[in-house]
Write a structure and sequence with these properties.
The complex is a heterodimer of chains A (507) and B (350). Helices cover 34% and strands 25% of the residues of chain A. The chains are: A alpha/beta (507), B mainly alpha (350). Chain B: Its main location: membrane.
Chain lengths: 507, 350
């Protein structure tokens, strides 16, 4: 490479959030005109890093230089003025404004400082859209009326409306069809030919091979490799770097297959599908069995759980408990049949944060403690307490507000809710998200014990070792399709990651 | 109840204000919990403090007129109609909703209950009609919101407009005088049931019932759950829509009862009845500590809020201050109360 300094150098970037060290000394170096790929598992720190780069988060430590000069990205505006634009995964467009208005939002061409020169904005937007290969998008249309792919183009046009020298794209291909991806790559090529640098985040290795120049791999908040050649580094090495683990989790012993193999399945899923989210899935769950769904964000794993639970209405297929089909799309039918869900977003979807532990645990079983609507609060409290004690929830105080508990204990409160309800099928979506490492082993033991006591557990996790360590059987998902089913003991992390990223085993 | 149970923490303010520190959780409460209990106490204590100050002001400026038993009785009586409405509205707000139509529902129920045709059926006819009309209007609100997925603000705003219109149509703008003697008797200043003015008795009964429903029944628990986190409530297997329907029905029922009380009080039915009750009821609930975003609120707080407003009106009237000054004072109290609550709330959060 030429002796001119890299466009961007980040060194030793650290960033902590309460309870989490999201970035633990990350280095990144981006050259002008290159496509630099950022890889890492969920939670490796990619999002935090690009937010630091966009000026949205302030790092706790480390240095950033831009064109050889030390800089501080103290706000998104500062980053934008330097020429750093970020296209987030969640598009940040205003649906009620036109394409042109979105493109120039915040820096509209004006007369006398406040009258927007609409025509100028439209011509400008049209020029940018043309440059992006989409002259057919009308700058006067409302963004809300556009397809997801076109919205992404608008988002990119907005980035280019600034004098941009570095564009960060966070999983830009996730919402796109294959030919739209081809167009995206043409755009990226065009940009780099003009000397613009692109930081490209994707889970799809084949894309990185196609357009990437260099790769930086993040893991547990650190860069484990900086600037590897994107085209020639073997997949196996990349996967190894993504998975190489510092923390060994302790997983509980699996019991022998004895009882499980012979028992009748309590839950049966037949051809369950939701258009656009996941293709028909079949699975059976026996009492005492833990089945894991492994896959990346967007692979449809959470959607499958929520559809089984009735929180989403399937477009095909059905769910049976004890051979009896459940009413489709009804949470109440699922709960009545003995299914419980510990959802992915514990705080938003499961907990009443300001309420006490007791009230959170009893909320699904209220009628059990009531006669004609009147609650017997003594019985309620005792029953809830028995459930939380069985899971060793700390503190052992039924009046404590759930908000004050640790992540692990909040999760136990959710599990206690279903234990109290006497549920027979437990759906766990990312059960250890937000749970610190020390508390995980305990949670794993709890889940296994519940299974040993006869519960059937369906587990979703983006942490492959968690699925492999805890589950008896694993279904591997990729982009809404089950690509592999196997006994957990026959799989290892590399193989699962290969399947998850490329759809077929490599090596 | 030998022990203050779960509700002592969140809905304990009622207890706290009645029994004082005894309502504190029994066994080794955690730090956050103590702060929470404290905040809840402070909130209602501050409202009690405001009430005490008002009584002092009233007693000081107009000692004879204000502290007269008859006047205190008047304050309670004047509080009773809006108080019953406020109890219903408090439930709706705790569930994360809003009911802007309460004043209009009171008007509609009161005029429907006082048409000549209804009065033919006497006392029972008037009472029955008022309650049924309130329930029916609440049912429409509830169905639109719960099953028609309308935003509560919009649905009840529409009800506000149409119920007022219907009330005007029924009365043709005329005051409908009540001729049923048994109804009129209850409104006489010297009428007492069990030694208490009948309207105050109804108010007390509705307050106690509201407190019990909120704190001691599955209905109350589900109301708080829906308001605190509707998605979590749904995923926990609660029928959120049906709960919402019931809540607007409850608000309608309270309006029906309030309409009957208003008929007793005024001896007539008018389409202008219950004017701006929606604002008074919501304001009382808010200064009583109910979160407009839902999930938290108390019946005692709301009732205290009503008493504060009525007492101000009373004192101002005794001191010959006009209603413009009253309105300004009301606004100032709402702002002050919310600011104080925000501070105590923030203080308790980590």
């Amino acid at each position: 490479m030429a002796p001119e300094p890299p466009l961007l150098t980040m060194s030793g970037i650290t960033k902590s959030f309460p309870g989490v060290r999201a970035l633990d000394g990350v280095d990144l170096e981006v050259l002008a005109g290159e496509v630099h790929c950022l890889l890492g598992q969920n939670g490796a720190g990619k999002s935090t890093l690009i937010k630091v780069l966009a000026g949205a988060h302030q790092p706790d430590g480390g240095a950033i230089t831009w064109c050889g000069e030390p800089v501080q990205l103290s706000s998104p505006i500062t980053a934008m003025r330097l020429g750093i634009a970020t296209i987030y995964q969640e598009l940040d467009l205003v649906e009620g404004l036109s394409v042109a208005e979105n493109v120039f939002l915040g820096h509209e061409p004006t007369s006398a400082g406040f009258v927007v020169r609409t025509r100028e904005a439209r011509t400008g937007a049209a020029a940018l859209l043309g440059r992006l290969g989409h002259p057919e998008i009308d700058p006067a249309r409302l963004v809300g009326d556009l397809s997801a792919a076109h919205q992404q183009i608008v988002s990119m046009a907005r980035a280019l409306s600034h004098d941009v020298r570095l564009i960060v794209m966070d999983e830009p291909s996730a919402a796109l069809d294959p030919d739209e991806v081809d167009n995206l790559f043409r755009i990226v090529d065009g940009l780099t030919a003009e000397g613009v640098a692109v930081v490209y985040i994707s889970h799809r290795l084949e894309e990185i091979r196609r357009i990437g120049d260099r790769v930086t791999v993040l893991k547990d908040g650190r860069a484990v490799s900086v600037g590897l050649p994107a085209k020639s580094t073997p997949t196996r090495d990349i996967v190894a770097m993504m998975t190489g683990r510092n923390v060994e989790y302790v997983f509980p012993e699996r019991p022998g297959p004895g009882v499980r193999a012979t028992a009748h399945p309590v839950l049966k899923v037949e051809g369950l599908a939701r258009k656009g989210e996941f293709e028909p899935v079949d699975l059976e769950l026996r009492p005492g069995e833990i089945v894991g769904l492994a896959g990346l964000v967007g692979s449809g794993r959470s959607e499958i759980l929520e559809t089984v639970y009735g929180a989403r209405r399937p477009t095909a297929g059905r769910v049976l408990v004890d051979g009896k089909p459940l009413r489709a799309g009804s949470v109440r039918a699922a709960v009545a049949a003995g299914i419980g869900l510990a959802p992915e977003e514990r705080k938003a979807q499961a907990l009443l944060l300001t309420e006490s532990v007791t009230r959170n645990v009893s909320v699904s079983s209220l009628s059990r403690f009531a006669r004609a609507g009147w609650l017997d609060r003594g019985t309620e409290r005792e029953a809830a307490r028995a459930a939380t004690r069985e899971l060793s929830l700390r503190p052992d105080n039924p009046e404590a507000a759930v908000r004050t508990l640790s992540g692990g204990n909040q999760q136990k409160a959710v599990l206690a809710r279903w234990l109290l309800r006497g549920c027979r099928v437990l759906l766990l979506d990312e059960p250890t998200r937000g749970v610190d490492v020390g508390a995980r082993a305990e949670l794993y033991a709890v889940i296994r014990r519940l299974a040993d006591e006869g519960l059937a557990v369906l587990l979703v996790s983006s942490e492959v070792p968690e699925v492999l360590g805890l589950a008896d059987r694993v279904l591997v998902l990729r982009e809404g399709r089950v690509v592999h089913t196997a006994d957990a003991r026959e799989l290892d992390e590399h193989r699962v990651l290969d399947l998850v990223m490329e759809g077929s085993p490599t090596s | 109840m030998t022990q203050p149970a779960p509700s002592a923490q969140h809905h304990g303010p009622e207890k706290g204000t009645v029994t004082g520190p005894a309502a504190a959780p029994p066994s080794k409460p955690g730090g956050g919990m103590r702060a929470l209990g404290l905040r809840v106490d402070v909130r209602n204590l501050s409202l009690l403090g405001v009430l005490a100050v008002l009584i002092a002001v009233g007693g000081f400026t107009e000692p004879d007129a204000f502290l007269d038993t008859g006047n205190l009785q008047l304050i309670l009586t004047q509080s009773s109609v809006i108080g019953v409405v406020t109890v219903g509205v408090t439930f709706v707000i705790i569930s994360g909703g809003i009911d802007l139509s309460v004043g209009a529902m009171v008007a509609l129920a009161s005029v429907w209950a006082t048409t000549l045709a209804t009065q033919d059926f006497g006392f029972a006819g008037i009472l029955f009609t008022a309650v049924i009309v309130g329930l029916a209007a609440g049912l429409v609100n509830g169905v639109l919101i719960a099953y028609g997925r309308m935003v509560p603000f919009i649905a009840t705003l529409a009800m506000l407009a149409s119920a007022r219109g219907l009330a005007l149509q029924i009365t043709d703008g005329k005051t409908q005088i009540v001729t049923v003697q048994s109804v009129l008797d209850l409104g006489l200043p010297d009428s007492y049931v069990l030694g208490i003015p009948p309207l105050v008795l109804v108010f007390a009964a509705v307050t106690v019932a509201g407190w019990l429903i909120l704190n001691r029944t599955t209905f109350g628990r589900r109301t708080v759950a829906v308001g605190g986190n509707a998605e979590a409530a749904r995923l926990a297997g609660i029928d959120v829509r049906r709960q919402r329907l019931y809540l607007y029905l409850l608000s309608g029922l309270c309006c029906g009862i309030a309409a009957f009380m208003l008929v007793i009080l005024s001896g007539s039915g008018q389409n202008t009845n219950g004017n701006l009750y929606e604002l008074d009821a919501i304001a009382a609930a808010i200064i009583g500590g109910t979160l407009l975003s839902g999930g938290r609120g108390t019946i005692v707080g709301s009732v205290l809020g009503v008493l504060v407003f009525t007492t101000i009106t009373n004192i101002f009237a005794l001191n010959n201050l006009q209603s413009d000054v009253q309105q300004i004072a009301k606004g100032a109290i709402i702002v002050a109360a919310v600011l104080v609550q925000r501070r105590t709330l923030r203080g308790s959060e980590t």
